Amino acid sequence: MRNYLLGTLEVDRRAALEERILSDPQFYEELLVSEEDLIDQYLGNKLSPSERQQFETYFLITAERQNNLRFGRLLRRYLDSQPAPVSFEEIPVAVRHPETYAPAKTFLPFAGTLGRTAAVAISAVVVAAVGIILLLCWISSRKAQQHVAQNDSSQFVRVPLAPGTLRSGDVGTQHVPLPPRGARVRLEMEVSNSNFHNYKSELLRENDFVQTANQLQSEKKGEQHIVPWTIGGDVLSPGDYQVRLSGVLDSGQDEFIDNYTFRVVK
Hints:
The protein is α+β, with helices and mostly antiparallel strands. The chain has helices at 2-6, 11-23, 25-43, 49-57, 63-81, 103-150; strands at residues 156-161, 174-177, 184-191, 198-205, 208-216, 219-221, 224-232, 239-248, 254-265. It folds into 2 domains: 2-80, no CATH class; 154-265, Immunoglobulins (Immunoglobulin-like), CATH 2.60.40. 42% of the residues lie in helices and 26% in strands. A 5-stranded mixed sheet has the order 2-9-8-4-5, with no helix packed on it. A 4-stranded mixed sheet has the order 1-3-7-6, covered by helices on one side. Helix 3 (25-43) packs across helix 5 (63-81) and helix 3 packs across helix 6. The longest helix is centred in the middle third of the chain and has 48 residues, at 103-150. The radius of gyration is 28 Å and the shape is elongated.
């Protein structure tokens, strides 16, 4: 799951995992837990440089994950800004001098110490309560997302694409319904040359760049070969789109393969 979320899972295993995501709600919940772990490790600087790069360029492809990252960063900053709770053993006890006996003055230092102790305890309780409330809100939001995902088969949309150039009003243009919020869209680009180890794709909307992906790999689908690219449905809005697919040579240079077009409609 970790490699899948970072975009480094082998092609054949990735396809099998995506099939299971669609058919097994419990497995999908486990995937969401893995997402939370990755976000926590990213915020805690526990990812390797390569994992951190994959996290930023591949994992954060959906608005949902970006929102979870922002919430996690906000919660971490809030908790880090609060003073650590002070235990009763760490609070100095006022010492009474035996040579002076003044009942009123003897109890005042004790009252002051008790007051400071109560204030520290109350402050710690308030901080903990706010943190728990934020955590519960986040958990509630995640459960709602899981519920929606489990009851909406359109959360994972496949779009098969054949090579070709978009023409205004072309009846042969692939029409894609506007994906629901939080959905993932798997663009499956048909290729005749599957000899490249890696592919590069660029998504454009009416000649404006939307998103780019590197290190894509081809996979066999029936009698054809495709290059799959999973993107966040939130980046799509009604309009005409074009995908430019290139093969990556051993020298690192790109070799253009073909264009793939589709139209998102409401």
